Amino acid sequence: MEVEIFFDIEKEIERVADTLKRLPWYREQGYTSFHTNLPKQLTEQSNRAEIASAISAEFNEEKYRDYSEHIQKVWSEISQNLIKLKEIADFKLLQKYTIILTKYGSGGSYNSKQGVVIVNINFRSKEQIAGTITHEIIHIGIQHLVDQYKIKHWYKERLVDLICHHYFSDLRKMQDIKEDVSVVDKALEAYFPDIEAITKEIWEISI
Question: What is the distance, to the nearest Å, from the Cα of residue 132 to the centroid of all Cα atoms in its chain?
Answer without folding.
Answer: 7
